[in-house]
Amino acid sequence: MAIEIRQVSNKRERKEFIKFAWQIYRNDPELNKYWVPPVIDDYMKTLDTGKFPLYEHADLAMFTAWRDGVMAGTIAAIENLRHNEFHGDKVGFWGFFESVNDQKVADALFDAAAAWLKKKGLNAMRGPVSPSMNDQCGMLTKGYDSPPVFLMLYNPPYYNELTRNYGHRIGQELLAWYIDQKIIDIARLRRISEHVMKKEGLSIRILNMKDFDGEIERIREIYNRAWESNWGFVPMTTKEFDCLAKSLKPLANPHYIYFVEDRNKRTVGFSLSLPDGNQALRHVNGNPFSPIGLLKYLWYSRKITMVRTITMGVLPEYRKKGVDSILNTHIADYGGKHGVFASEMSWVLKCNEAMSKLAKVIGGKPYKEYIIYEADI
Description:
There is one protein chain. By secondary structure, the protein is an alpha+beta fold. It has 14 helices and 15 strands. The strands form two sheets. Strands 1, 2, 3, 4, 5, 8, 9, 10, 11, 12, 13, 14 and 15 form a 13-stranded mixed β-sheet that branches. A hairpin with a 5-residue loop joins strand 11 and strand 12 (267-275). Helix 6 (103-119) crosses helix 7 (158-166) and helix 8 packs across helix 13 (323-337). The longest helix has 17 residues, at 103-119. The protein is globular. The mean pLDDT is 94.
């Protein structure tokens, strides 16, 4: 069977690149049970190198594989200049990987990404990262029996075999923690939270939607400081953060976004959780902005029963003082009062013992696992 690699060069081909995933998941009843189609318009913007702010310091190429004239797979190769400047290495990335269960097709896709990255002077590639570490990343290895939550990836189990067989090794392992708020000892959490606030002179408040831009800047500043030593982290530019905030604003519930302040009203920590929009997006087939899609999305949004804590940041000088207990108490309290008794904390590096300890303390279980793979090129 002849395998041909083509590079995506226009808007029509970009949409074909995105829509290929339907062939993988819709044709497999088991995968189709849990897969949540990506929002096509969002992916079109993310993959638009002329408009998406990431590409002010990055470059991307998209490739499709064709087997006997029929599309059989996709991959994107990404050069992130800020990553390599920040970490002092020469790593490239690959993402948006989809493939039929054919090693030759997968090999051809990885070869195309590797060749493009090598021409950029890079000596290793890492993925899936779609398209940056601040977006969707990690290949699912455990937890196929439930849908992914908002902005987390889902893939067939055989993708791991295709990736490993090509020569990839484990770069990092990621965890998603499931927290059943019905079994949380909320009274104990409240006592701890109150003790910490009194001892440290702290207070907590929700997001002020009237000062949305200012609130986003406070989150960005703490996020970049709190996460700067984490593996793979790259500080987000103001444009990147503003773009992300704009895309998430329609989903934001101020009662799931908290700020902890000191005696001088300086923000020392925050927690960003969002309702699991995937519970509604599952029903719109990638088109929530069409008339029917919007109606379905609004209808199913009323029945969301889970939140995802995407990120939590605390200034270095306030770490290990229990600030996280204040944040978790209020997330659980509000959720419980409004019928939301489940949450996912994701993603968390498996080697991050502090975050894993925090998740365990509030009754969390690591129910999904992911791998970011690496290979020399």
